Amino acid sequence: MEAQVRIGNSRHFALKSAVLVYGDGPAAFATLHEVQAEKGQTPYLGPGQSLTTSFLRALAHGLGARVAPEILPENILARTPDMVVWWSQAQRRVMFFGGGSEEAQKLNGRMYPHPPLVFKISGQELFVRALGPDARPSATTPLKTAPYWNTDGQGLVCQGNMRVPDDVRVGSIAGWEDAYFSSEFTHASGAARLTSHPGGFFGLWSSLADSAEKFPTQFLTDAKQTLREFIEGDEEG
Fold first, then answer.
1. Are 130 and 161 in a shared domain?
2. Number of separate domains in the chain
3. What would the pLDDT profile of 122-141 be if each residue is shown by its tens digit?
4. CB contact set of 192 (below 8 Å; sequence gap of 6+)
């Protein structure tokens, strides 16, 4: 494996300190060591010190892990350097179905009403949940399972050949939504129950094809997760 770092020609970087991480199962701590160097001798590490918040902040800034100032629209629910969470009101959207079955072909390319949704980009992964009420959720709002193929019980989307934006920022969220609904829904992901509709998945979407009615949220299944748990899921995992 090769790793390359481009730092330009006008800067001279010298080894100043090292961070050592100690682990015992899920527990871990880290210490900061100054690099000691004497002329003509191999550099060595000095005594360890506890990491400070100011050091970590300076390190993150130096590595580029800083969120540029942005004006946040009302649909943004949470924002970190590598994560954006937002919600989308109930609306009508075209859906594309693949997978080769006759039932999927009948549903392909038609207009459907959709429930309000919560999206999360974490790194380059996309997660989707649904909402019951068509209103901005709070931290304790219970979430529903997104009633879509390609989306598993944790809300994680199997991206396949989706053409997603390259970055995680507020300005890219429309591109992530468009990528999700412009791709083909081809298969069920995992064992999550996507809907409680008596006709199952195909029965639900067949009843909604080209419908001007609102999405029947009574057929959404419980994700057993609040908005806060959804947002903090990666940190707990």
1. yes
2. 2
3. 988 999 999 999 999 999 99
4. 145, 152, 153, 221
Select from 91, 115, 120, 95 the least CA-distant residue to 181.
95
| 94 and 134 both lie in a single domain | yes
Q: What is the pLDDT of residues 6-46, one digit of tens each?
A: 555 556 677 788 888 888 887 878 888 888 887 778 888 88
Of 36, 66, 96, the last residue of a domain is 66
Same domain, 146 and 206: yes
Q: Do 137 and 205 have their domain in common?
A: yes
Report H helices in the chain: 53-62, 102-107, 173-182, 200-208, 227-236
**In what order do the strands lie in the sheet containing 27-36?**
17-24, 27-36, 44-50
pTM over 0.70: yes
Do residues 39 and 156 share a domain?
no
- Domain extent at residue 202: 76-236
Domain boundary among 43, 66, 89: 66
DSSP string over 124-177: TEEEEEE-SSSS---TTPEEEE---TTB-TT-BB--TT----SS-SGGGHHHHH
* Residue 207 CB partners (closer than 8 Å, separation 6+): 197, 199
| Pairwise CA distance, residues 114 & 171, whole Å | 23
